[in-house]
Amino acid sequence: LDAVRFGIQIGDVDIETMGVLLAAPGSLPPAASGTREPVIKGSGAQLYGLNASWHILPLLNVELTGLARVARDPVPGWLTPSNTFVIDGRISGDRRGFRYAVEGAYELGKLASYGVNRDIGAFALAARAGLETKLPLHLTFEVEGAYASGDDGDPSSKQKRFDPILPDTHTTLGPMSFFA
């Protein structure tokens, strides 16, 4: 991965941006048939991100995140040509042993699937709250829950499951992959 990242703090607001080159622009190597012309030319794949956090109070932090993955040929085998955008919002806090967080994410865009470009419309919600006591070993009580939309598998309808922005795939099963 070739990437650049920049962050700045302005008062109670933290802002971070990033840009990542997932697959270099150019062309795929010549076909196995012996032709000398590139098979596919394209802009490659990139990932862009923006995150802003506002620390209003210890019990009130607001965070907004946006990710955009633009994947064009040539792409590696683990990445599907697509335009994928994720918008995420989070409210959280931590004060005197009480912690909570509520988060929601929505993914939209288009994904190449079964010879057509499929629209994506996936969402997820998550929440958690916990209380750390002053009992021995700092006994903590916590509750959490999450929900994510799923897909019915119909290739002609809108995809409702998340398309991984940066999938964690292993082409060979090494020791770390085996244990993971």
Describe this structure in words.
The protein starts with a strand and ends with a helix. Strands 1-2-5-6-7-8-9-10 form an 8-stranded antiparallel sheet, with no helix packed on it. Strands 3-4 form a two-stranded antiparallel ribbon. The protein has one helix at residues 175-179, and strands at residues 2-10, 13-23, 26-27, 41-42, 45-57, 60-71, 82-95, 98-113, 116-132, 140-148. A hairpin with a 2-residue loop joins strand 5 and strand 6 (60-71). With 180 residues, the chain is mainly β. It is globular.
User: How does the major sheet shape up?
Assistant: 8 strands, antiparallel
Distance between the termini: 22 Å
Strand order of the largest sheet: 1-2-5-6-7-8-9-10
Structure class: mainly beta
Work out the radius of gyration: 21 Å
The number of distinct β-strands equals 10
Would you identify the regions where 5 or more consecutive residues have pLDDT less than 50? none
Anisotropy-based shape = globular
Q: Provide a count of the helices.
A: 1
Strand content: over 45%
Give a brief rundown of this model.
With 180 residues, the chain is mainly beta. It has one helix spanning 175-179, and strands spanning 2-10, 13-23, 26-27, 41-42, 45-57, 60-71, 82-95, 98-113, 116-132, 140-148. 3% of the residues lie in helices and 58% in strands.
